Amino acid sequence: MREPLVKLCGNRSASDVEKSANSNATHLGFIFVRRTKRYVRPERVGQWIRRTQPKQKLVGVFVNPTVEQLEEVLTFVSLDVIQLHGSETVSEILKIKEAFGLPVWKVVHHSEDALEKMEVFKGVADGYVIDSKVKGAHGGTGVSFDWSTVEDYVRVSNEQNVTCFIAGGITPENVDQLLDHEPEGIDISSGIETNEQKDLYKIQAIMKEVGRHVASIS
């Protein structure tokens, strides 16, 4: 097993970015969804990135964005990936890919028909984030789902030759249980926070568990 990708999401301050960037994570995520508690203004993120110069890839999280909204963010932040967390259609995703030439990840909420939804985006989505389904929330809920299904999500994403991250309720205390199901990527937000700020010790604990798991089976 190769070491799973790790995305530290929901960074909302210069301090958060510094802590996340100083880890061995592969991706840093920023929420550009207004009226959510982790929303960040793109111009602020641009300042933090210039100051910190993170080595990780930058992921912008959006819900049903317009091309204009994406253009505004990309004016300030050189994103590597656009992550769509809403009810975006195949044609809307194609339009975004054509406009910006960036990889697009689609969030699919864990449900009975989640695998069928992944098939709908086959050849269009460049990756998936499988998250818990919580009524009235798009993500960042700290709620996990039944991880025994992870193998199915990984199988379908492998068939499509794209990446698959698992999100929702991942913490330093339970990440080893998730890693037993060999996810390709893990996506963590609330699980690395204390008092709504990124917690350096929790980030280090997560990364340590990831490294320990890979070492134990290699």
Explain what you see.
With 218 residues, this protein is an alpha/beta fold. It has a single domain, classed as Alpha-Beta Barrel (TIM Barrel). 37% of the residues lie in helices and 20% in strands. It has 8 helices and 10 strands. Strands 1-2-3-4-5-6-7-8 form an 8-stranded parallel β-barrel, surrounded by 4 helices. A two-stranded antiparallel sheet has the order 9-10. α6 (150-159) links the parallel β6 and β7 (163-167). The longest helix is centred in the C-terminal third of the chain and has 18 residues, at 200-217. The chain is globular and about 45 Å long. Residues 7-208 form the N-(5'phosphoribosyl) anthranilate isomerase (PRAI) domain. InterPro entries: Aldolase_TIM, PRAI_dom, RibuloseP-bd_barrel, TrpF_fam. It catalyses: N-(5-phospho-beta-D-ribosyl)anthranilate = 1-(2-carboxyphenylamino)-1-deoxy-D-ribulose 5-phosphate. Pathway: Amino-acid biosynthesis; L-tryptophan biosynthesis; L-tryptophan from chorismate: step 3/5. It is an enzyme of class 5 (isomerase).
Would you spell out the secondary-structure blueprint of this structure?
Layout: E1 5-8, H1 14-21, E2 27-31, H2 42-52, E3 57-62, H3 67-76, E4 81-84, H4 90-100, E5 104-109, H5 114-120, E6 127-131, H6 150-159, E7 163-167, H7 175-179, E8 185-188, E9 193-194, E10 197-198, H8 200-217
Parallel strand pairs: 1-2, 1-8, 2-3, 3-4, 4-5, 5-6, 6-7, 7-8
Antiparallel strand pairs: 9-10
Helix pairs in contact: 1-2, 2-3
